[in-house]
């Protein structure tokens, strides 16, 4: 078992490698839990204190004004505004008009992209499962999702919402709906006994069930390896938000329209 890292991030237990690259028995061993019994109640309390509750930070909500300000208050936009002012100042109407159009288009497209990204992040709060079924001390019972910690053995059935990022250890005809994360309209069938290369995109890590995804078919069991804000699902959403806030000009907007999907969906890698 890997020693706990005193400086580990909240919600993330240190593994020797990413969970999707390791066989499930190795993940269970490194997380210091047991396949059947799960964690002890005392260990679960200690990990809850160390890694924090399994929840997203409550934000201030979506602010239209703040989003609009962020679209204007960045270095490249200020340069474009200055260039526009100079162009009109020297009566270069065509050049000034073109720069104005770029500025307006940049603001409009950037605003709607970031607004959509923040609404998606906000929706994760409502999609989060209120409870999860875990095994502790050899007994299986429901606990509030905020109390689920890395190392918990979680059971999933049709209709459940996945309470945290989970490395599957058992699966029977198990499929999840990840449309919010990947944009895929069809459920994804999972494979608990597969491992994947380190650089496999999150959307192709079929041995992982992601937080806030919904079980559409079958049943499964897995071990939690990441909770709260450290989850890959929220990392993907944060990536989209960053793509929305770090744009420099209209020329850089177009490639970033589908940042979240491209982050999560990549060419499928072969099983290792």
TrEMBL record:
GO terms for cellular component: membrane. It comes from the Eukaryota. It is found in: Membrane. GO terms for molecular function: ATP binding; ATP hydrolysis activity. Keywords: ATP-binding, Membrane, Nucleotide-binding, Transmembrane, Transmembrane helix. Residues 18-92 form the Cation-transporting P-type ATPase N-terminal domain. It is a multi-pass membrane protein. The chain crosses the membrane at residues 72-90, 96-117. InterPro entries: ATPase_P-typ_cation-transptr_N, ATPase_P-typ_TM_dom_sf, ATPase_P-typ_transduc_dom_A_sf, ATPase_P-type_domA, P_typ_ATPase. This is E1-E2 ATPase-domain-containing protein. It comes from Aspergillus pseudonomiae.
């Amino acid at each position: 078992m890997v020693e706990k890292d005193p400086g580990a991030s909240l919600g993330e237990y240190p593994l020797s490698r990413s969970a999707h690259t390791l066989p499930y028995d190795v993940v269970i061993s490194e997380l210091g839990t047991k396949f059947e019994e799960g964690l002890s109640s005392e260990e679960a309390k200690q990990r809850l204190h160390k890694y924090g509750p399994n929840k997203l930070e409550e934000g201030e909500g979506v602010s239209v004004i703040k989003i609009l300000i962020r679209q204007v208050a960045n270095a490249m936009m200020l340069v474009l505004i200055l260039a526009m002012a100079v162009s009109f100042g020297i009566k270069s109407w065509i050049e000034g008009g073109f720069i104005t159009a770029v500025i307006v288009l940049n603001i409009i497209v950037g605003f709607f992209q970031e607004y959509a990204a923040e609404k998606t992040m906000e929706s994760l709060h409502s999609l989060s499962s209120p409870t999860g079924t875990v095994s502790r001390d050899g007994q299986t019972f429901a606990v509030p999702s905020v109390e689920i910690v890395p190392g918990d053995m979680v059971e999933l059935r049709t209709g459940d919402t996945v309470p945290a990022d989970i490395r599957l250890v058992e699966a029977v005809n198990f499929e999840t709906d990840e449309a919010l994360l990947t944009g895929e309209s069809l459920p994804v069938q999972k494979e608990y006994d597969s491992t994947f290369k380190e650089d496999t995109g999150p959307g192709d890590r079929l041995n992982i069930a992601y937080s806030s995804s919904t079980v559409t078919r079958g049943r499964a069991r897995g071990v939690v390896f990441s909770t709260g804000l450290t989850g890959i699902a929220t990392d993907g959403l944060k990536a989209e938000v960053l793509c929305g806030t770090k744009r420099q000009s209209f020329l850089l907007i177009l490639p970033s329209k589908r940042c979240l999907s491209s982050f999560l969906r990549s060419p499928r890698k072969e099983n290792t």
